[in-house]
Amino acid sequence: MDGNEEHGNSFGIEVILLEDAQTAPCCSHGPTLLFEKVCKGREKGRRFYACSACRDRKDCNFFQWEDEKVSEARLLAREAENQSKRPPFTHQEYWNRFQKFASLPLDEKLFCQDCQILLLPGEHSVHSAHRSTLITAAQLKRPSVLLRPLDNKKSNAQYLFTERSAHFLLDTLAGLGYKKMLCVGTPRLQELIKLRNLEQKHQPMKSLLLDIDFRYAQFYSQDEFCHYNMFNHHFFGGESSSAILKAFLRDSDKEKVVMVADPPFGGLVKPLANSFSRISQAWKKLQSSDSSKADMPMIWIFPYYFEPRILACLPSFSMLDYQVDYDNHPLYKHGKMGRKQSPVRLFTNLSPSDIILPKEEGYRFCPLCERYVASLNKHCAKCNLCPSKDGREWNHCSACGKCVKPSWKHCQSCGHCALPDHPCTSSQVKEGCFNCGSPQHKRKACSVKYTDSYWAKASGGEKKGSHPSLLRSKTKRKSGAARRAKLLAAKSL
Ligand code: SAH
Ligand code: ZN
Ligand code: ZN
Ligand code: ZN
Ligand code: ZN
């Protein structure tokens, strides 16, 4: 596995996964992760703990050197800070409120948009200066529509599935006989399952939502929602909450269970893979002996350019061509003309041939690859696979011995295919790496998997996975020189 992958920078920040995460200090998001700054050719960098969930200091500024002595006073202050960030109500309280709310007359069902909370009659006056709206019984069943999507670009942007993608996932998995769905960061999927059960036209499906957005605790009982951090497998509700997951995973012999996770895209692959593996292990322990060798069926939704990293962590997974799209992400729309195609794909340990991609959208079965592929993803006889990752038709380059993006041309001086206007090796000699700004190497040798053009466009050029403690603020793509200066400055931190 590429050591420099996580939080990729020229010097690289690696996540060190601890055997016993309980030894890590906690921020309000649970146990922090241990990071290490790795510099090529130099001795190991100093290790530090930082928040598992937030990439932006503004959201969580926890920082502690691994070998740092923390004073009693600071520990107390930290504990107080963590306490203050707890949700205002316990889950049981939220659930009691919900039941009261549901029984209110129509003209008293108020939702405060500013506080994002369902109001009980006695609370109306306190929120009278806020924007609030009356909500219907139907709206109460669609929290993912009612709640304002979190739009924090760096830590927790919520991108909700289009009807098309949500129905595809649900229909496909129901069709494969799954009766239970573990929804990790997929509130809209859980919502759709519950709505469908009400229709009584289909076999009922059970679902459990694990999400860090505790606003959902207002709408779901303890058996339907756990306040959870998928970067450190932390249950905010403690033992009793993790017991809910276990109970859900149990007796899944009769009722097959599948997990569908859609983490924030800036997320760290290694810790996510670790959490999903822990869920799978918990599932395994609860199976009868004959099925104990199998892995828990899972779908992890993530952009295609993470493929190498995900497969390095979870070798039994494969990437499917299906393009997942989102309602509130204008750039991630499914193959419409004039729009960027969505870079988001399904990674799964289910058999690819079982996941039938919709014919109406041009997907077809490739008998040689034994999977469904995008319409323009033509099988290459030389590579013996359908090579396209981005949905466009790729071309085989005989010099490179592989298929490459249609926009790439073989470059004699670089010795491989690249964009026609790429900075050639020869002209880059004096300037160092054009990708990351390091003067020590060329772009060709760069370990930073730089942003794909999709990503660059979608997020305003924001670089994936930069760590707050090293690169603090940066939203627009800087000029090459400015970027280099910034990175060199960060290096000397
Ligand atoms: N497409 C999904 C939503 C994906 S957005 C749907 O339509 O249902 C990412 C989701 O992950 C959000 O619901 C967000 O609240 C949740 N999330 C973000 N960070 C998380 C974390 N650290 N742990 C658990 N859930 C997280
Ligand atoms: Zn934190
Ligand atoms: Zn080829
Ligand atoms: Zn080539
Ligand atoms: Zn580089």
Rg, rounded, reads 24 Å
Q: What structural class do helix, strand and pairing data support?
A: alpha+beta
Which outline best applies? Answer: globular
How many strands, which pairing sense, and closed or not: the largest β-sheet? 8 strands, mixed
| Tally of individual helices | 11
Bound molecules: S-adenosyl-L-homocysteine, zinc ion
Number of strands: 25
Approximate helicity band: 10-25%
Strand order of the largest sheet: 15-14-13-12-16-17-19-18
Rounded average pLDDT: 83
Span of the ends, CA to CA:
26 Å
Brief sketch in words of this structure:
By secondary structure, the protein is of the alpha+beta class.
Please give the structural blueprint.
Blueprint: E1 13-16, E2 26-27, E3 30-31, E4 33-37, E5 47-50, E6 63-65, H1 72-84, H2 91-102, E7 110-112, E8 117-119, E9 132-134, H3 137-140, H4 143-146, E10 151-152, E11 156-157, H5 163-175, E12 180-184, H6 187-199, E13 206-211, E14 225-229, E15 234-235, H7 238-249, E16 257-261, H8 269-285, E17 298-303, H9 307-313, E18 318-319, E19 344-348, E20 364-366, E21 371-373, E22 395-397, E23 402-404, E24 409-411, E25 416-418, H10 453-458, H11 480-491
Parallel strand pairs: 12-13, 12-16, 13-14, 16-17
Antiparallel strand pairs: 1-4, 2-3, 4-5, 5-6, 7-8, 7-9, 10-11, 14-15, 17-19, 18-19, 20-21, 22-23, 24-25
The structure holds S-adenosyl-L-homocysteine and zinc ion (4 copies).
